C-alpha cells in the first residue's frame, strides 16, 4: 500500500511597487509580508518613488569587539624589527618596472638599472 501526500505552500505575492494610497490602506499587511519574505516594496506617489519598505535584519552584535579573540599577538608589535629588510630580486624587478611605467606616463625616459 502506498500513500502519497502532497502539500503546497501558498506563495505570498509581494508587489514590487505600491501606490501611496494603496500602501495607506494595506500598511500592516504589507509590513507583515515584507517581514516574512524579506522582499522590498517601493512606494510611489503619482508614479514617482517616495519611500521604500525594507525588512529589518537583526544586528544585535555591536561593531566594537566583534573580532575579539580572532587574532593572536605574536611578540612585541611596537618594538623595532631586529633585522633590516632587504628586498628580493623579484621585488626589485617589480619596483624597477613600476618606476619605468611612471616615467612613461610622465613622458620621460626610464632610468637604466645599475648592474
Give a written overview of the molecule.
With 115 residues, the protein is α+β, with helices and mostly antiparallel strands. The chain has a domain at 13-56: YefM-like fold (3-Layer(aba) Sandwich), CATH 3.40.1620.10. The protein contains 3 helices and 3 strands; from the N terminus they run E-H-H-E-E-H. Strands 1-2-3 form a 3-stranded mixed β-sheet. The longest helix has 18 residues, at 89-106. The model has no long low-confidence stretch (mean pLDDT 78).
Task: Summarize the model shown.
The chain is built from 3 helices and 3 strands; from the N terminus they run βααββα. It has about 120 residues and is an alpha+beta fold.
Report the major sheet.
Answer: 3 strands, mixed
Structural class: alpha+beta
Give the proportion of residues in helices: 25-40%
Report mean pLDDT, rounded to a whole number: 78
Q: Outline, from the CA principal axes?
A: elongated
CATH architecture descriptor name of one domain: 3-Layer(aba) Sandwich
Task: List how many beta strands DSSP finds.
Answer: 3
Strand order of the largest sheet: 1-2-3
What's the CATH first level of one domain? Alpha Beta
SSE run:
EHHEEH
End-to-end separation in angstroms reads 89 Å
Rg estimate, integer Å? 31 Å
Assign the CATH topology of one domain.
YefM-like fold
Determine the strand fraction and express it as a percent band: 5-15%
Per CATH, the superfamily of one domain is YefM-like domain
Layout of helices and strands:
Blueprint: E1 17-19, H1 20-25, H2 27-37, E2 41-45, E3 48-53, H3 89-106
Parallel strand pairs: 1-2
Antiparallel strand pairs: 2-3
